[in-house]
Amino acid sequence: MSFSPSPRLPRGPRRRSLLASAAGAALLAGCTGGSGSGEAGAGPSAVERAHARAARDSEELAARYAAVIAAHPGLAERLRPLREEVVRHAEAFGAVSAASPTASGTAAGTAASPSASVRAAGPANESGGSDVVPTDEKGALALLAGAERKLADRRARTLLDVPGESARLLASVAAAGAAHVFLLTEG
Prior knowledge:
- This protein is mainly α.
- The protein is built from five helices and two strands; from the N terminus they run αααββαα.
- Helix 2 packs antiparallel against helix 3.
């Protein structure tokens, strides 16, 4: 007994294909709309605010690195690559002019003397006080590691509030900050 093909071939898309397409379109529409995306004059979006804060935080962290490098020139070779990466992070978030990668003189308004005070409302200084660069290298590295850790944690929390590329950028920079913590605390 031979089976012959069905005399009636389906025309057009099947019901399952239509349902899957409709569900996919609904998901895409839900992912692309942002809060206040169609409102004129609604102020900066959550993404713009997150980027501005991340740029500011990275600039302040770069200033911390510069202060520690100035206070402890023996750490310059170890810290300069980390600081340069922090400067690149600030630029990735849209910072117009990140602090200069050299530690000669001042950086972003931070005094560069051994008793330099880091007066940023940045990652390790949200209480309003000022952090003084410790006189010992171990303490200075701990200061930077603490600042990196707090900033990486904040960025990890923030990435939940922003969509797509911004979340990926925040996640990447938070991971780099966590790696910096490891490099600062090893050895």
